[in-house]
Every structure is written in structure tokens, then in C-alpha cells.
Design a protein that fits this description.
The protein has 446 residues and is an alpha+beta fold. It has 14 helices and seven strands. Strands 1, 2, 3, 4, 5, 6 and 7 form a seven-stranded mixed beta sheet that branches.
Length: 446
């Protein structure tokens, strides 16, 4: 039989997915899932500065490698910012607050310039919305926290919390969003330590998180030095715990974005992962925590999502490449560990068909079949050999497009495919499976 294999390594998928200035749905899903797969638990990252990369693209100086690196970086920023928008929207929906938020970004059909523009605009809108919610919460906290009492018996010495201290602490928290103002000067080392601790609170902190740290800051500013030191330590530990909690929620939200992608969502995950998305959603909305067991499960799920999206991307790439070479897709077929396409050509006149599939090891296989049991005469033999050569050239061209190694067997005739087997070939069910991307995860705590 005639056929061959194209060794398409994970790096090749990344390069091919990001080579274009505008990516399609399958490539976008793969880039997003891969970015989620590589997400690390930690503080909010600054949006990248992509000016130089965009200038190279406009000037026509960016090659496939540079475009791929740019898309990978953009996908990482999109995944994190989408996660933060989702977390904030969950909070505002529960609070019944009317806040203007950016729509989450779908990279499908977008150019690099459009994604960069959205990142800048969306990050600004999120910051404005967070500050607006903070201001509303501060009005409530000013009235509820100690030191805001206005009864005649309430004197400045009766409360550790003073109006000046409250204003200073609130300004410190506000500056996490504005970054354009200067924190009011403080007169003592203890006060400076309080402001430094407050300035480190995660920008995704909720209204209740703000209220709690202000409560502890009030106690840390008390008159008794020993109590103040104890409460300062409690404040610092509380902020550390809050930041860690929010980092876990962001990570869960990033993983969830990969699992909820339409391409992934329509594929049944392995049995142990059937409820993973729901469990991660509970973490995002604050109803559960990212336990070590769920962390392991979530990582497995997002790796599966990255593999699934790569399967679809490769299948679409194969379809496009072979269609451009004159092939017609007759059927798609899927099985557990590979999936592919059954194809034909008009000039084959129904005498031959080809099967192209990708296995779980990353090999794109191709095989030519004949539908005539016995080849009668030299002309039929030569015609089939010619079609073998033609199909092998197509596989070679496919490998060049995918920047992959190609192995072909050009010494044999097409294998005979009986009608019963041909029907089975066209109706088997699943989706292209290739090796999972080799993404190295940073060590994170539990």
C-alpha cells in the first residue's frame, strides 16, 4: 500500500498556529488552551508591551517564529485578563451592582493589533470598575468601622481608629488602582509598615477583603506598641492569605477558560474529569478552594484540553492543505486515540480514496486505498502507481507546511479496501489526537 507519516511535534503545532497575523477558531482555541496549561499561580502580571513586535509586523519584518512567539504571549495575557474579568463579574452579579465591564476576548478571527488594543482597553476598564466598587465599599466602611462614630461620647482617644488614619489607609488601597497619586505621608515607622502591607493587597480583592484589612489596620495603629506589633503581623498574614486565595481563584478561572472553549466543550472528557469544570467554577466564585486534589485534577483537565484543541487545529490544517491541493473531504472519522479524514480527488473517478489521520504520538499518517479488487492490465497498474506518487507528494507538501519530518513509502500499490471496510472507515467516530504540548509548569504551593 502507498502512504507515509508526517512527524508533527508539539513545537510545530505552536509555530503553525501562531504563524498567521490573524488566527482561526481552531488555532485560537489551541493557543488559549496552551496558555492556560502554562498558567502559573501568582500575582497579577502586567500586560506586555507589544509595540515593537507590531511595528515589525507592519513593516513585514516578522517571520513565522516571531509571529508565533507574539501570539503565545498575547494568549497568556488574554487568558489572565479574561479570568480577572470573570472573577470581578461574578462578584458584581452577586452584589447586584451595575458596573461597565469589557467583554471577554475571543482571539478567533482577530489580528494581533486587535488583540493588543483590546488588552489595553479592557485592562483600563477593569481597573476603573474595580476602583468604582472600592469607592462604594469605602463609603460603607467609613460609616461602619471604629472611629467613624459621631456620638458625643466618642472621642479621638476612645478609638485606635482615627479619621486621619482611615483616610490614609483608604488612600493606600485606592492607589493600587490609580497608581497616579502619592500616598499621604505618615509620621511613624509603624504607620509606614501598615501602608506597605496594605499596598501589597491583590488588586482583585473583594469588598469584604478590603473591609477586613482595614479592620486589622485600625488595630495595628493602636496606642499599645505590643498590641500594635501583634496586629501588624496579623494584618500582614491576612493579606498574604488573601493574595494566595485570589491567586488560586485566578488559576482556576484560567483553567476553566480552556475547558469551556466551544471546541473543547463539545468533546466528552475522560471519565475522571467529567465534573472538573463545575468544581473549578466553584473555586472561581469563592464557594470552594483549590485543594491539592483539585489542583492535580485541574492540571490534568487543562492538559487534556490543550491536547484536544491541538487535535482540532491539526485536523483543520491538514484539511486546508490537502483541499488546496485538489482533494475533497468525503468524511471525518474519530476513534479514541486518533481521528482524521477520508478524502478523494475528482480525477480518481471513484477508483481510489485516501485516509489521513493523526495518532496520539503526534504522527500524521496517510494511506491510499483502491476500490477495485483486481487491477486489470498495465494501464490500471500504472494509474495506481501514479496516484501513489501523487499522494506521497501531497504528504511531503503537507509536512513542509507543518514544518514536520515526512516519511513516505512509495514502493507499493494502494491497498484494496472492500466496500464493507470502506463504509466502516467513513463512519467510525472521535477526533484527531496528537501528543500533548510539552509545557513546563512552575512549582506552586498547595
Amino acid at each position: 500500500m502507498s502512504g507515509g507519516a508526517v512527524l508533527f511535534l508539539p513545537a510545530g503545532a505552536v509555530l503553525a498556529a501562531g504563524a498567521a497575523v490573524v488566527v482561526g477558531a481552531a488555532a485560537a482555541a489551541f493557543l488559549i488552551a496552551r496558555a492556560a496549561n502554562g498558567a502559573a499561580e501568582g500575582a497579577v502580571r502586567a500586560i506586555g508591551d507589544y509595540g515593537a513586535e507590531l511595528e515589525r509586523q507592519v513593516a513585514g519584518q516578522a517571520n513565522a517564529e516571531l509571529n508565533s512567539a507574539l501570539w503565545s504571549a498575547l494568549a497568556a495575557d488574554v487568558v489572565e485578563l479574561n479570568a480577572r474579568i470573570r472573577m470581578f463579574k461574578e462578584r458584581t452579579d452577586r452584589a447586584g451592582a451595575a458596573v461597565t465591564l469589557p467583554e471577554p476576548m475571543s482571539m478567533a478571527g482577530r489580528s494581533t493589533g486587535e488583540v493588543v488594543s483590546w488588552l489595553s482597553t479592557a485592562a483600563g476598564m477593569l481597573t476603573v470598575a474595580q476602583q468604582a466598587m472600592y469607592e462604594v465599599a469605602m463609603l460603607r466602611n467609613t460609616m461602619e468601622l471604629p472611629g467613624a462614630a459621631t456620638t458625643p461620647s466618642a472621642t479621638a482617644n476612645a478609638f485606635a481608629w482615627t479619621a486621619a488614619a482611615l483616610a490614609r489607609h483608604q488612600e493606600t488601597l485606592r492607589n493600587r488602582y490609580t497608581r497616579g497619586t502619592t500616598v499621604a505621608s505618615v509620621s511613624t515607622a509603624d504607620s509606614s509598615a501598615i501602608e506597605a502591607a496594605l499596598a501589597g493587597l491583590d488588586p482583585d480583592a473583594s469588598e469584604s477583603d478590603h473591609a477586613e484589612v482595614l479592620r486589622l489596620a485600625a488595630k495595628a495603629g493602636g496606642d499599645d506598641p505590643r498590641e500594635a506589633a501583634s496586629f501588624l503581623l496579623e494584618l500582614e498574614l491576612s493579606i498574604e492569605a488573601t493574595n494566595a486565595k485570589l491567586a488560586r481563584r485566578r488559576l482556576a478561572a484560567q483553567w476553566l477558560s480552556a475547558l469551556e472553549d466551544p471546541i473543547v466543550a463539545r468533546v466528552d472528557p475522560p471519565a475522571p474529569l467529567l465534573g472538573t469544570a463545575a468544581r473549578l467554577h466553584a473555586v472561581v466564585i469563592g464557594e470552594a478552594d483549590l485543594t491539592p486534589a483539585l489542583r492535580s485534577e485541574g492540571l490534568e483537565a487543562v492538559e487534556w484540553a490543550a491536547e484536544t484543541t491541538r487535535q482540532h487545529f491539526v485536523r483543520e490544517t491538514v484539511r486546508r492543505c490537502l483541499t488546496e491541493q485538489g482533494y475533497t473531504v468525503e468524511e471525518e472519522f474519530d476513534v479514541r486515540h486518533h481521528a482524521g479524514l477520508r478524502m478523494s480527488r475528482t480525477d480518481w473517478r471513484g477508483e481510489n480514496s485516501a485516509k489521513v489521520w493523526v495518532d496520539s504520538e503526534g504522527l500524521v499518517h496517510g494511506r491510499l486505498y483502491r476500490h477495485v479488487d483486481q487491477l486489470q492490465g498495465d494501464e490500471a497498474l500504472l494509474r495506481n502507481r501514479s496516484r501513489c506518487d501523487e499522494f506521497n507528494r501531497s504528504l511531503t507538501a503537507l509536512g513542509q507546511t507543518l514544518q514536520a519530518e515526512v516519511r513516505v513509502d512509495s514502493d507499493r500499490l494502494p491497498q484494496y479496501l472492500a466496500p464493507a471496510n470502506a463504509a466502516e472507515l467513513g463512519t467510525t467516530t472521535s477526533s484527531i489526537t496528537i501528543a500533548a504540548p510539552q509545557v513546563h509548569h512552575r512549582q506552586v504551593g498547595s
